[in-house]
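Need a sequence for this fold. Nothing fancy.
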């Protein structure tokens, strides 16, 4: 779901830089092409992780200068150091929906003039995250439902660009053509909210309206 070019891509995943490194490898294959390359930013708050990652990047991408290592909280990305005309794709995965909400809220609040896009893959609390994205008036670029190792993942790509459609609280595009995977995920999600003894009536009603085609 990452489509170039973006002046800045921020890898805020809990995977020790795996995604960002893959993006660097893709860019390395395109050296010499006219397409502008992205600055890849690696972010983690744990110093030892970032030190090891920096050493690894220095070994393998010494002559590819478009990578940057930031040891800080994801909620404090230094986007203000860059021109507001430059787009930022911020990738957050591997954490729960509640923490993802916190990160997105903080980044949006601190950078109201910047062109922001988020690619999100929370571990849980998808409905609550989507509700927050809607309240922030972020718009849907794309969404996908994936299954890997018996776990389901929603990948949600949103933007501050108001020319895109609104974010659905239960998803829309991701159900199209999802087949058996979609049916299994919908059944599991409904069961989860129905077990909460009346505390999640809105969620249950919303997911009951989902149509898989």
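Here you go.
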């Amino acid at each position: 779901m990452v489509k170039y070019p973006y002046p800045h891509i921020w890898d805020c995943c809990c995977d020790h830089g795996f995604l960002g490194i893959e993006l660097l490898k893709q860019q390395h294959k395109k050296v010499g092409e006219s397409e502008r390359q992205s600055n890849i930013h690696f972010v983690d708050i744990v110093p030892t992780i970032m030190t090891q990652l920096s050493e690894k990047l220095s070994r393998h991408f010494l002559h590819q200068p478009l990578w940057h290592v930031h040891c800080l909280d994801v909620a404090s990305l230094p986007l203000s150091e860059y021109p507001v005309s430059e787009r930022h794709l911020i990738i957050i995965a591997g954490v729960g929906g509640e923490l993802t909400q916190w990160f997105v809220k903080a980044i949006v609040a601190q950078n109201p003039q910047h062109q922001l896009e988020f690619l999100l893959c929370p571990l849980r609390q998808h409905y609550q995250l989507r509700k927050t994205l809607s309240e922030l008036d972020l718009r849907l670029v794309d969404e996908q439902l994936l299954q890997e190792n018996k776990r389901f993942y929603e990948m949600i790509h949103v933007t501050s660009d108001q020319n895109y459609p609104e974010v659905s609280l239960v998803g829309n595009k991701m159900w199209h053509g999802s087949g058996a995977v979609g049916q299994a995920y919908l059944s599991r999600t409904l069961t989860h909210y129905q077990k909460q003894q009346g505390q999640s009536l809105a969620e249950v009603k919303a997911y009951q309206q989902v149509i898989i085609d």
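For context: The first strand starts at residue 8 and ends at 11.
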